[in-house]
Amino acid sequence: MNGATYLIASTSVRLSALSGRWARFSATACGAKAHIVYDPDADRPIHAVVTPARGTDLTAAKALPIEAGATYVFDLGYYTITAGGRACTRRAAGSSPGSRPTPR
User: Fold this and answer.
1) Around 3, how many Cα atoms within 13 Å sit in the side-chain half-sphere?
2) pLDDT tens profile 51-61
3) Is residue 17 part of a domain?
4) Which residues lie below 8 Å from residue 18, measured CB to CB, with a gap of 6+?
5) Could you give the number of structural domains in the chain?
6) Three-class SS of residue 90?
7) CB of 37 within 8 A of CB of 6?
8) Is 71 domain-assigned?
9) Has residue 13 been placed in a domain?
10) pTM for the full model?
11) Under 8 Å CB-to-CB from 48, ≥6 apart: which residues?
12) What is the pLDDT of residue 102?
């Protein structure tokens, strides 16, 4: 396998009612999700996107950078058959046809 391997995951954060304008999750709860791209070789996150908790992981994945030649490991929240796998097959600019994230 050539190139780097990155892990993509998300975690939910409960927020106070002060965040209700953008982070309302239900009638009684507000929250956000942090979507993290983690580099296990560097032992640190390299990118993050914060979204309201009511959004899907697939929506957030479209904002994550994709590096040509890298392998991305993620759960099924970032992949859906109805979306044609766009989140995991989107190619980085200037990459060759074989350079794309691979669902694992």
Assistant:
1) 15
2) 888 878 888 88
3) yes
4) none
5) 1
6) coil
7) yes
8) yes
9) yes
10) 0.68
11) 34, 35, 36, 37
12) 44
Nearest to 48 by CA among 61, 35, 57, 60: 35
d(CA 10, CA 55): 12
Q: Which domain holds residue 19?
A: 5-89
Amino acid at 12: S
Q: Which amino acid is at 61?
A: A
* pLDDT at site 22: 86
Amino acid at the residue 25: F
pLDDT in tens, 36-95: 999 999 999 999 999 888 878 888 888 888 888 888 888 777 765 444 444 444 444 444
Place of tokens 């990118």: 47
**Cα distance between residue 87 and residue 83, in whole Å:** 8
Which residues neighbour 6 within 8 Å (Cβ) at sequence distance 6 or greater?
Answer: 37, 38, 39, 40, 46, 67, 70, 71, 72, 73
